[in-house]
Amino acid sequence: NNITISGNAKVGGYVVAADVVAGQTANGNSLTISGNANVTGNVLAAHVKNGDEANENNVTISGNANIDGNITGGGSISSSDTGVTTANNNKIAIKDNATVKGYITGGDSRKSEGQSNSNQIAIGKGVNISGVSKIVGGTSKAGSALKNDINITNNIASTTTITGGEGNLST
């Protein structure tokens, strides 16, 4: 699935390229927001409420686009033990003069023994992220969060938390 929002578009809710309620996978989806587009809700390339995979999804924010909500490459917005088992190889690129105010998460796995590995976040020099309080490459509730990359070429507020991977592996 591919979604492009551009020009002077205004979106008052969530934008999700693939939304799996109870199924298997949401892989290879793409979401692009550019121009002077304004989105007040969360932005997700792939959202899986209860399933197996949200892998290899891409979010690109560019131009003068404004995002008031959270940005997630692939995963779940649920805070419970439902969600996705693997959220690997998701990419978020924010560039030009875009403005983002919510959390930025590359991959988000909420299931026990889930994985959130090899996700990438790139934030360019002209991007306004002064309202962002948290940037996480990959998060896993009870599994691995390894080899996640965050590349920021801009100033960050002193209150912003940046974490490559949040995981919980018990032996």
What are the key terms here?
mainly beta; 171 residues; six-stranded parallel sheet; 50% strand; globular
Structural description of this entry:
- The termini are far apart.
- The chain is an all-beta fold and 171 residues long.
- The protein has strands spanning 2-5, 10-11, 15-20, 30-33, 38-39, 43-48, 50-53, 58-61, 66-67, 71-75, 83-86, 91-94, 99-100, 104-115, 120-123, 134-144, 149-152, 161-166.
- It has no helices and 18 strands.
- The protein is globular.
- The model has no long low-confidence stretch (mean pLDDT 92).
- The strands form 4 sheets. A 6-stranded parallel beta sheet has the order 1-4-8-12-15-17, with no helix packed on it. Strands 3-6-10-14-16-18 form a 6-stranded parallel beta sheet, with no helix packed on it.
- The protein is 0% helix and 50% strand.
Strand and helix map with partners:
Elements: E1 2-5, E2 10-11, E3 15-20, E4 30-33, E5 38-39, E6 43-48, E7 50-53, E8 58-61, E9 66-67, E10 71-75, E11 83-86, E12 91-94, E13 99-100, E14 104-115, E15 120-123, E16 134-144, E17 149-152, E18 161-166
Parallel strand pairs: 1-4, 2-5, 3-6, 4-8, 5-9, 6-10, 7-11, 8-12, 9-13, 10-14, 12-15, 14-16, 15-17, 16-18
**Gross morphology:** globular
Number of strands: 18
The secondary-structure element order is EEEEEEEEEEEEEEEEEE
Sequence of strands across the biggest β-sheet = 1-4-8-12-15-17
Given helix and strand content, the structural type is mainly beta
Largest sheet at a glance?
Answer: 6 strands, parallel
> How helix-rich are the residues, as a percent range?
under 10%
The overall pLDDT average reads: 92
Low-confidence stretches: none
Strand content: over 45%
Radius of gyration: 15 Å
- State the distance separating the first and last CA atoms: 39 Å
Q: Work out the helix count.
A: 0
